[in-house]
Write a structure and sequence with these properties.
The structure is a single chain. The chain is an all-alpha fold. 70% of the residues lie in helices and 0% in strands. The chain has 2 domains: 73 residues, no CATH class; 57 residues, 434 Repressor (Amino-terminal Domain) (Orthogonal Bundle). The chain is elongated. The N and C termini lie far apart (36 Å).
Length: 148
């Protein structure tokens, strides 16, 4: 919890620098994005919790986390990496506040909860079309992940 408090405090300090239009605002914006990412991903906190802590909207927080993900993961973004697919699938399912059972039902009536669990853990075959259907069920446009 001390780490969370430290990150939140630093986030607010950096936000003040940006609001005051410091010359290095772009660097501060990147740092701010990475702090938001750390709270969500590294600390495992929920979107709503972090948004309240940082006193920003959930939409702004999502944008910051996506910016940081691109900065931190860089060229590692590869939709053909099944473990990364699984991590994204789980993040998006939780963001949409769906259970695995609900997601399975949205994919197709034949999709089992166990398949969703395997997919989230990166244990499905590359090219399994249900991956695409899963992301579509979560309203995620996956085409952008195929083309860097």
């Amino acid at each position: 919890m001390d780490n969370v408090k430290a990150i939140v405090t630093e986030f607010k300090r950096v936000t003040d620098y940006i609001k005051n239009k410091e010359p290095n605002a772009e660097l501060f914006f990147t740092a701010r994005s990475i702090m938001a990412y750390r709270l969500m991903i590294d600390e495992g906190l929920k979107l709503g919790e972090v948004a309240i802590m940082l006193n920003i909207s959930e939409e702004e927080l999502s944008e910051l986390v996506n910016i940081a993900r691109l900065k931190m993961e860089g060229r590692q973004l590869n939709f053909l990496n099944i473990f990364q697919q699984g991590r994204w699938l789980k993040e998006m399912r939780e963001y949409r506040q769906l259970t695995r059972e609900q997601l399975a039902a949205k994919i197709s009536q034949d999709t089992e909860i166990e398949w969703v669990e395997k997919a989230e853990n990166g244990h499905v075959k590359i090219g399994d079309p249900r991956i695409i259907y899963a992301f579509q069920a979560l309203d995620v446009k996956v085409g952008r992940y195929f083309f860097g």
